[in-house]
């Protein structure tokens, strides 16, 4: 989306993003100093946050003057996920502090339910908010998969869990019918929650390689099943609908 919003109208949103950046800066500074983390940790976390902030600015509807409470909560979740992404730069940190880092992932998962509830309570649901929430879910799952691979608790196959969403988006470039809007689905949300939960449990030191394989494997099977259902629905819908009636959308 092109950025035609004036600087004055954009300022409150930039302030929200700046507040998130300050929170991330404080968190990574504490992490770096107290836990003797690698200097690459705050750098990678900052890069992850800046990319997220840039995508937010590019995707926010042009008439919006502020993010709103629900999206601010989602932004807070994004800050936590950026911090988790930063820890990928230091596998020793991941190994030594797997439990508190898994707790951060749990907090991000809890906030995933809070932002939606706030949006419904305040009647501020939006396509942007749903997309923002969905993309953070996908990124969190990818970060957890990379963490398991970095710790040697799972082989490269675990990345299929985190990469499937992005492969679906790329496939949509060539197959436009994959970009049609999908109906609301509790099944899709349940699969997402189980992915995060299973990968989070697998990160814990007490969970061995065999249990990790079963946990991550169940997440992969559930996700594959969910994608097959949605792709089949999209294909049938595309075959039954005239091209002019198709709408852009995405898998969540």
From TrEMBL:
Q: Which UniProt keywords apply?
A: Membrane, Transferase, Transmembrane, Transmembrane helix
Query: Record's superkingdom?
Result: Bacteria
| The UniProt record lists the keyword Repeat | no
Which GO molecular-function terms appear in the entry? phosphotransferase activity, for other substituted phosphate groups
GO CC, alphabetical: membrane
Q: Name one GO biological process term.
A: phospholipid biosynthetic process
> What are the transmembrane regions?
12-34, 40-60, 69-88, 94-114, 134-151, 157-178, 190-208, 214-235
Q: Kindly give the Pfam families that the UniProt entry links to this protein.
A: CDP-OH_P_transf (PF01066)
Describe the family membership recorded for this protein in Swiss-Prot or TrEMBL: Belongs to the CDP-alcohol phosphatidyltransferase class-I family.
Protein name, UniProt field: Phosphatidylglycerophosphate synthase
């Amino acid at each position: 989306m092109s950025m035609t919003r004036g600087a004055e109208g954009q300022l409150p949103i930039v302030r929200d993003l700046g507040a998130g950046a300050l929170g991330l800066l404080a968190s990574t500074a504490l992490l770096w100093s107290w836990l003797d983390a690698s200097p690459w940790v705050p750098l990678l976390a900052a890069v992850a946050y800046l990319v997220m902030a840039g995508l937010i600015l590019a995707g926010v509807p042009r008439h919006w003057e502020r993010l709103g409470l629900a999206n601010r909560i989602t932004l807070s979740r994004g800050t936590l996920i950026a911090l988790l992404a930063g820890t990928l730069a230091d596998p020793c940190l991941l190994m030594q502090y797997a439990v508190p880092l898994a707790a951060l992932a749990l907090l991000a998962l809890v906030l995933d339910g809070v932002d939606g509830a706030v949006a419904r309570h305040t009647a501020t649901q939006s396509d942007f908010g749903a997309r923002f929430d969905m993309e953070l879910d996908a990124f969190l799952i990818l970060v957890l998969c990379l963490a398991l691979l970095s710790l040697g608790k799972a082989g490269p196959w675990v990345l299929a869990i985190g990469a499937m969403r992005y492969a679906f988006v790329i496939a949509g470039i060539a197959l436009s019918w994959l970009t049609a809007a999908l109906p609301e689905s509790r099944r899709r949300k349940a699969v997402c929650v189980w992915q995060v939960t299973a990968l989070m449990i697998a990160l814990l030191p007490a969970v061995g390689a065999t249990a990790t394989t079963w946990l991550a494997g169940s997440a992969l099977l559930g996700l594959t099943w969910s994608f097959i259902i949605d792709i089949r629905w999209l294909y049938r819908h595309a075959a039954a609908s005239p091209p002019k009636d198709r709408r852009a959308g995405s898998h969540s």
